[in-house]
Design goal:
The protein has two domains: 193 residues, Glycogen Phosphorylase B (Rossmann fold, 3-Layer(aba) Sandwich), CATH 3.40.50.2000; 190 residues, Glycogen Phosphorylase B (Rossmann fold, 3-Layer(aba) Sandwich), CATH 3.40.50. It is globular. Helices cover 46% and strands 15% of the residues. Helix 6 links the parallel strand 6 and strand 7. It is an alpha/beta fold and 390 residues long.
């Protein structure tokens, strides 16, 4: 039996949370691995312990730099006391004095994205630009320091290899339909009421909290164009966030996006549901007509697999990683072209035949991603590192 220590202190939103929520149940089912999970206190309440999974809570708060230094000083002793054989660092940054072999999960495309750095400069957010450059340096050193680095897609693994000159493995993230569609609890009443009010409209879904690299502004402009082309049929853009700086994780300023909605007179067309509980997301996917993502930087994009598994046709920005995940089961457009995105929305919403074909291709494609396969590959890697260290 191997003992795996997972450092998930940085898992607070987006892909980090999705990863822990899906991988931990797989580990708990296996009798050939013990797991010690370290998470922040804010997540401790939703993680169930078992005979094979021990959960440690950590109350350290503050900025990521402070957390990073805290981990570097104190985590080696915690790992030693746990008796773990291998460390799995899930938050892009390695432990530089790991007492056991370390697997680094790298899943942040912003450090290698020229589009993101240009976007941040154009927005005048120089503090975020500097923060990204500094974190990028630590992320690169982390890849060099870890015994092995794992990326969630071959596209991102190739980016990291070019960036660091070091070999990086690809272990694709997965999808568990039994878990994702399990919860029968309905959406909160106010959310369901918003969806019911849009029942006769073309409902375009985008699942993300607000940030710059998901390129909300291109999507908003596309909705304005599609509104004119679809008239008299209505269109609704369903968002799982609020376009408010205070109501999103991180330090992204949503004011410009909110102002764009006002300028384009889309207050009725843009439906800001706010954060939707992960266990209830399947209701949302199945209540919409099209899934659209204009993101210009991604490492995997779990919502694409969730959308395909829900039978929802996908329109995605033309990124190599989106093509890797969706293959022929999506329609692609240039990532900064609202006109091309609008045309795809209009064309897809008007073709029952195309939507049906995409539904079947998407359902088939989604079956290529499984969390049990991911965990199998991860454990094989952990055992090989442990054996070499021993």
């Amino acid at each position: 039996m191997i003992h795996l220590f997972i450092n998930a202190l940085s898992a607070s939103a987006g892909g980090g949370l999705t990863y822990i929520r899906n991988v931990l149940p797989q580990l708990a089912l296996r009798d050939d691995v013990r797991t010690t999970l370290l998470v922040g206190d804010e997540l401790r309440h939703e993680i169930a312990e078992s005979t094979r999974v021990a959960v440690l809570g950590e109350s350290h708060r503050g900025r990521s730099a402070g957390r990073f230094l805290h981990e570097q000083r104190h985590l080696p002793d915690v790992i030693r006391r746990s008796g773990a054989d291998v460390l799995l660092s899930t938050g892009n940054f390695a432990l530089f004095r790991s007492p056991v072999p370390q697997i680094l999960l790298s899943r942040n495309a912003l450090y290698t994205s020229s589009d993101f750095l240009r976007d941040v400069r154009e927005r005048g957010d120089y503090r975020l630009w500097l923060d990204t450059k500094m974190k990028g340096a630590f992320a690169r050193w982390s890849v060099l320091a870890a015994d092995c680095t794992v990326a969630p897609s071959e596209t991102f693994a190739a980016d990291l290899r070019r960036w660091t000159g070091k070999n990086v493995a690809c272990i694709r993230h997965g999808f568990d339909p039994e878990t994702f569609f399990r919860n029968p609890e309905p959406l909160p009443r106010e959310m369901q009421a918003c969806l019911d009010a849009a029942a006769d409209a073309v409902r375009v879904l985008f699942v993300s909290h607000y940030n710059y690299y998901r390129n909300f502004e291109t999507l908003i402009r596309a909705v304005a164009t599609a509104k004119k082309k679809l008239y008299p049929r209505a269109i609704r853009l369903i968002l799982t966030c609020k376009l408010s700086t205070q109501e999103n994780p991180g330090h992204y300023r949503a004011d410009a996006a909110a102002e764009l909605v006002r300028q384009m007179e889309l207050s009725q067309e843009v439906v800001e549901l706010g954060s939707v509980p992960y266990a209830l997301l399947h209701h949302l996917y199945r209540s919409c007509n099209v899934y659209a993502t204009p993101a210009y930087a991604e490492t995997f994009a779990h919502p694409l697999v969730e959308a395909m598994a829900s039978g929802l046709p996908v329109i995605a920005s033309d990124l190599a990683v989106h093509r890797e995940i969706c293959g022929e089961a999506a329609v692609y457009f240039p990532r900064f072209s609202p006109d091309a995105l609008a045309e795809s929305i209009v064309q897809l919403s008007g073709s029952d035949t195309q939507r049906a074909a995409m539904r079947e291709m998407g359902l088939s494609r989604s079956r290529d991603f499984r969390w049990d396969r991911h965990v199998d590959s991860l454990l094989r890697l952990a055992r090989s590192l442990s054996k070499c260290a021993g």
